[in-house]
């Protein structure tokens, strides 16, 4: 992988881009609904939980601790304040289990980061609880491959401008890679960088937005293993055909060179 003056810095999302995350929330949500089976169908309990999460994002932020507090709040609401202490204890146990779950790296994560390290400045950019994100990074064994790590409360265009100016040559010479269109791709493009979407089979509903398919700096790949080849083609050739998941050509865009 050879460096290129037009692209010097690559940001990577962490959760559901480098390692599994959402699946543990889904499993815990099913366990939570089972605890409250006498107070509503699973779909109803999940809908009430999502409402609580949406309300609480501005208060608790992203992550397992906020999710656990939202479960407790939902349990109090759906039981009209009569939730047993034993259920509260079980919810807290479920949250602690999530916070200690082993890290499961996604396919091609290590080999891709290793291949790009040294040729580009690599920055891990993740949002959520500081302690939990630090734990997952340490458990992943990938920490030494990154030139910098940024754990932020939220991701928006201003976040990427600040980070890519601090650790790179500005957003215009940077790329953000992640599974969330809302948090990883769209705001990176708005900041002036490239956004590469790597879809994950599970994505939290609050992270859903439409793909910016008309943006010249938007790319989509099916897995991280395709990222080095994508970057090589962007550096080497004058044009790139960007494809949607079914493989049909979508747009032809000018390259970096």
Structural account:
The protein has 257 residues and is an alpha/beta fold. 44% of the residues lie in helices and 15% in strands. The protein is built from nine helices and eight strands. The protein has a six-stranded parallel β-sheet, with helices on both faces. The protein has a two-stranded antiparallel sheet with strand order 7-8. Helix 6 (130-140) links the parallel strand 2 and strand 3 (148-152). It is elongated. The model is unreliable at 238-254 (pLDDT under 50).
Helical/strand content category: alpha/beta
Strand elements, count: 8
Q: Which radius of gyration do the C-alpha atoms yield?
A: 20 Å
Q: Output the number of helix runs.
A: 9
Order of helices and strands: EHHHHHEHEHEHEEHEE
User: Which range does the strand content fall in?
Assistant: 15-25%
Distance between the termini: 15 Å
Helix content: 40-55%
Topology, please?
Layout lengths: L8 E4 L9 H14 L6 H19 L3 H15 L6 H15 L9 H8 L4 E7 L2 H11 L7 E5 L4 H11 L6 E5 L2 H10 L3 E4 L20 E3 L6 H10 L2 E5 L5 E6 L3
Parallel strand pairs: 1-2, 1-4, 2-3, 4-5, 5-6
Antiparallel strand pairs: 7-8
From the structure above, extract its key features:
six-stranded parallel sheet; 257 residues; 15% strand; alpha/beta; single chain
Task: Summarize it.
The chain is of the alpha/beta class and 257 residues long. It has 9 helices and 8 strands.
């Amino acid at each position: 992988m050879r460096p290129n003056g037009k692209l010097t810095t690559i940001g990577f999302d962490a959760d559901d881009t480098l390692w599994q995350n959402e699946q543990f929330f889904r499993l815990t949500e099913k366990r939570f609904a089972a605890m409250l089976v006498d107070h509503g169908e699973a779909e109803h309990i999940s809908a009430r939980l999502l409402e609580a999460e949406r309300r609480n994002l501005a208060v608790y932020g992203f992550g397992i601790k906020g999710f656990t507090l939202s479960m407790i709040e939902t349990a109090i609401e759906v039981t009209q304040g009569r939730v047993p202490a034993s259920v509260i204890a079980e919810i807290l146990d479920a949250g602690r289990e999530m916070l200690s779950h082993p890290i499961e790296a996604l396919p091609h994560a290590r080999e891709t980061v290793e291949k790009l390290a040294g040729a580009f400045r690599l920055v891990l950019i993740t949002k959520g609880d500081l302690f939990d994100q630090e734990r997952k990074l340490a458990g992943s064994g990938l920490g030494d491959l990154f030139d910098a790590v940024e754990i932020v409360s939220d991701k928006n265009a201003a976040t990427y401008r600040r980070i890519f100016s601090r650790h790179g040559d500005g957003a215009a010479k940077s790329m953000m890679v992640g599974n969330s269109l809302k948090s990883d791709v769209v705001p990176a493009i708005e900041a002036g960088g490239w956004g590469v979407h790597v879809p994950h089979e599970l994505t939290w509903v609050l992270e859903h937005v439409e793909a910016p398919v008309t943006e010249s700096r938007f790319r989509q790949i099916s897995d991280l293993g395709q990222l080095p080849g994508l970057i090589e083609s962007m550096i080497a050739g004058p044009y790139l055909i960007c494809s949607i998941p079914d493989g049909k050509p979508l747009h032809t865009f000018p390259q970096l060179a």
